[in-house]
Design a protein that fits this description.
By secondary structure, this protein is mainly beta. The chain has a domain of 134 residues: Porin (Beta Barrel), CATH 2.40.160. It has one helix and nine strands, in the order H-E-E-E-E-E-E-E-E-E.
Length: 218
Amino acid sequence: MGKYPFFAALFAAMVSTSAVAQAGQFFMDGGIGRSSYSLSTGQYDNDKTDWATSIRAGYMWHGFVDYGVELGYADLGQEVDRNVQFHNSGSDYVRYSTATNGWLFGGRLEYLLGQSWFVMARGGWFRPRVIEESADWTLTRGGPVHTVPASSYFHYQDSVDTGTQTYFGVGVGYCLTPDWRVGLNYDYYDLGSLFSIPGYRQPSSHVKTYSASVQFRF
């Protein structure tokens, strides 16, 4: 369990509150915000942020701390590197991108502060689907540099399977009504290693998101 201390503490807290739990509620939670990529293969890329969205559903039991489980899906946008390379015969416009989305399953805690404010913690397992894509337009001399169509075009796309990884998040929110809540959240999604070389362990890549969310309980 040393690799997952946050999740061990989260589920331990859920179990410890079960003795005083009351009837719970189902919930749906949707979030939108910005993602920030940190890829071991793209430290020099020039556009590391994008829009991120998520949708989660689950069940929360009521107690001193509300606790429950969530199942969801997150689209973390993409990281992009664009550049133009000039050479004797013309120029190349090159675009590399890494996009991520995937399913998640985990536990969730919410603690009410007073009558309306609450804090939240969540974490669990994330199954990322990482899509790496590259495109290269080669433009020969004799016309404008950005003439379309290009003299030649190369496109490559690959899906990278990094296995099951982890995610965790924290947030703060406000209860508008007994059924509706809004919040601001920070989440961290581990992507694992995007490629492997025999005898070399590549550092893991990850994505951070900052989002606003709306939750409905029923």
